[in-house]
Design goal:
2 domains, Bact_exopeptidase_dim_dom, alpha+beta, YgeY family selenium metabolism-linked hydrolase, Aminopeptidase, six-stranded mixed beta sheet, hydrolase activity, metal-binding, ArgE/DapE_CS
């Protein structure tokens, strides 16, 4: 199992799989899942791969989910970012931590569980697409296909159990102006002035907090005028894009309403608020415009899934810890939208994701295989 997970992780890293270009990686996942004994391996319309193991007439007790896509390589690397180099106990390469190592460990761990004991329920592993672009969208069709009783998100967590996660709402705030020549600005209405006032007003917006998830956040990430560039002319409109990190229980209407109230109190008007729905395209050619509203979620400490994960970690000789993620994952679809019991549990450190010289510790990969094996046996025997 140890050799398998190291080799498989290296093999995955050596295939570049940017979002929307995961085709070669998906083909590898199909081959390897079949070789590891998964009885059913399918690829859905989006290109996500789903492997199932256990009795064909039984329900799916547990789905381990990971995404195949990675962010682009930037900066100067010590090792080839697509080399999968093994050096001093770590495997280097883009996607090693986020999150090809997690998928490899899930495949190896679940296969080991099936070899060790006869499963009475099915266990699934999904390798999904486009998560780096839009969380949850691709997992939706996977969940439709296998209807799992519970979900494990294999994002990096240092093998701590994540029982909660912040959500994300991507907002576009547009101010409308009146075009005029830049030499005669008094004849127009400049939306950039309103945008500047809005940024100052929203910087002081009081946001909710939660004892588990911490403080909600509102972060401006982009500002652009239309037309762009607007040469010698007051623009027709200016749009600010915000990333709003949400807490469990918050609704889209709550978030947009508080922003609107704040802007109106600051004397601003003639604006529109919208949730981003940028179009995405999968490597299979599927196109969609999913809403960038990804809800937060929480599981209670005594939830059976959380207890099972703690037991699996303990059986593996690791001190169990339960915490939460500050970032957003595919769990926004399984838990946030659908209410399917979900936890996060994966090898590697969150802070290593998306970095130059991204890497994952071999001992984390090996331990993840054992933890996933125990969790599959607890859930499916």
């Amino acid at each position: 199992m140890t050799t398998d997970v190291i080799t498989l992780t290296q093999e995955m890293i050596r295939i570049p799989s940017l979002s929307g270009k995961e085709g070669d990686m998906a083909a590898l996942m199909v081959r390897r899942m079949r070789e590891f004994g998964f009885s059913s391996v399918t690829t859905d319309r989006n290109g996500s791969v789903l492997g199932l193991i256990g009795p064909e007439d039984a329900e799916v007790a547990l789905l381990f989910d990971g995404h195949m896509d990675v962010v682009p390589v930037t900066g100067s690397w010590r090792f080839d970012p697509y080399g999968g180099t093994l050096h001093e106990g770590r495997i280097y390469g883009r996607g090693s931590t986020d999150m090809k190592g997690g998928i490899a460990a899930a495949i190896c761990g679940v296969a080991a569980a099936a070899r060790e004991r006869r499963l009475t329920r099915r266990v699934a592993v999904s390798a999904s697409v486009l998560e780096e672009v839009i969380e949850g969208y691709a997992l939706s069709s996977v969940l439709d296909a296998c209807a799992p009783a519970a979900v494990v998100i294999c994002e990096p967590s240092k093998l701590q159990v994540k029982a909660a996660q912040k959500g994300r709402l991507e907002i576009q705030l547009t101010f409308h102006g009146k075009p005029a020549h830049a030499a005669t600005p008094h004849l127009g209405v400049n939306p950039l002035h309103a945008a500047a006032r809005a940024l100052l007003a929203l910087e002081n917006l009081v946001l909710p907090s939660d004892s588990r998830l911490g403080q909600a956040l509102l972060v401006p990430t982009d500002i652009i005028s239309s037309p762009h560039p607007s040469i010698s002319m007051i623009p027709l409109s200016t749009t600010i894009r915000f990333d709003r990190r949400t807490l469990s229980g918050e609704t889209r209407e709550d978030v947009l309403g508080s922003i609107s109230t704040c802007l109106e109190a600051a004397g601003l008007k003639d604006f529109t608020l919208a949730v981003s729905e940028d179009q995405v395209e999968t490597f299979t050619g599927e196109r969609a415009s999913p809403s960038r509203w990804l809800p937060a979620w929480q599981q209670g400490a005594e939830h059976p899934l959380v207890r099972a994960a703690v037991e699996a970690v303990t059986r593996s000789g690791i001190e169990p810890r339960v915490g939460s993620w500050a970032f957003c994952t595919n769990g926004s679809e399984s838990a946030g939208r659908r209410g399917i019991p979900t936890i996060g549990l994966g090898p590697g450190a969150e802070e290593d994701a998306h970095t130059i010289d991204e890497s994952i510790a071999v001992d984390q990969l090996e331990a993840a295989c054992v933890v996933y094996k125990h969790l599959a046996l607890i859930a499916a025997t």
